[in-house]
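@channel anyone free to eyeball this complex?
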Amino acid sequence: MNGEPLVRWDWLFAHLGPIADRVVQHLYLAAIAVGIGFAISFALAALSIRRRRLFPLISILATGVYAIPSFALFAALVAVTGLSVLTAEIPLVLYTLVLFVPNIVAGFDAVPGDVLEAADGLGYTAGERWWRVELPLAVPLVVAGLRLATVSTIGLVTVSAILGNSLGGLGYYILDGYHRHFTTEILVGGLLSIGLAALADLGCVLLQRLLTPWAAARVAVR
Amino acid sequence: MTKRYDAASGMPGAVNDLSFEVPAGAICVLVGPSGCGKTTSLKMVNRLIEPSAGQILLDGVDVGTENVTALRRRIGYVIQQVGLFPHLTVERNVAVVPGLVGWSRERQRTRSRDLLSMVGLDPDRYADRYPSQLSGGERQRVGVARALAADPSLMLMDEPFAAVDPIVRERLQDEFLRVQRQLAKTILFVTHDVDEAIKMGDLIAVLEDGGRLAQFGPPDEILARPASEFVARFVGQDRGLKRLSLRTVADLKVEPIGHADELPAFLSSTTLRDALSILLAADTRGGIALDEAGLPRGLVTVDAIASALADDAQIDTART
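replying in thread with the prediction:
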């Protein structure tokens, strides 16, 4: 730090290529985790809705997993799956469950009973009712879960940097900067990660607007 | 259409050995205290609830033998909470059943807009709104339009106007009766409100606890000759007055007007109940009955109104 400026712009401009690669890797690691996490969560939520008694159990398990420090979970998995993408993705996927499952369940629970009765009475088949009524009406809360999971995962990807230089996304710069006492690198890694999370969140909001124009109308009128 | 069922008794909403027949084009109102099985009976028609015994014949065919989805699509269904789809515009809400049975988009659109006009909603103003942007009365209108969309021969209406305030309810009832005069649907209508039953029904089925049929007949007959203590209590002490509300000044025999005081005048469409009320309030010897053209037809007196029921009762008795 002695005499060193806070940000070494020359370093930054010399490394634009590798930084861009790390951004791509960051997004890629996060997207896989959110995608797989969403799929697993949707199955668990569907199970929770059908078998209501399983919901508390599933919730406790998801919360329990979330309570494990990410640092410890990554480290523990190295013994099983080595320094691989799989080791990075397993914790990231597991951490999304506690954010997705309750929101998906709440989304389907929020579909009004009179709407379902009307759908049945008008002659929707079970499949038509699910695709055309229940799923669209669950979207606002499902997307709320997606926002949480996306923002949380983008932050957590940085921790996977402890698995080696080939992983970690922007976390690589945070860890490398820490080892080398190089503030510029830490700032680049940290700020870009925050920026990605903010952009992804904005993307989710836009997605929600696109999928649920009716929900916006509710706010807009009166 | 005949319905016979016999569901497990004992629980509220049970229906026991209920059997009656509704002619095509008539409004049949199921009325009774809460828990008497009116809604259960209605839901057995479109098989939202399956009867434990017995059968319901729709145009001579047992509904139990029909594909349940196809059955529901050809029966209109309106419920108290309306159950509009919040994510669809008013136009799309009305067109859901035509959509399910595969009409073209253009035909759905035309049908939807026609129906909105019919229920008194300007399609240009309402078609693109979402249900959250409507008042309670507007939602009910859309609910009725939606039930009519695929032109069902039978409509099931479960307390369709119960959730709105009395003024809106009366307007919706009047407008529905106007629409029904054009469409002549066969309608099963559930309500707990005796006045609504009398107003809407060509036939009334009074149900008592346990889903037993206490009486079945036209409103005037139920008011004139309740079949049991239960029916008499249920229709109320004022059943005489309620009978007057079924008749209008046009039905009344009138006396010569004689000397012309300042007397109240009654349109031919005024109910005898209202006419009596006005005469009592004005404390006059009578009022002027106007004919369809609005010209004085004769004198209406309290005595004439009172004897109107007596005359009818004699005719009714003679008939039976």
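from a first look: The first helix of chain B runs from residue 38 to 45.
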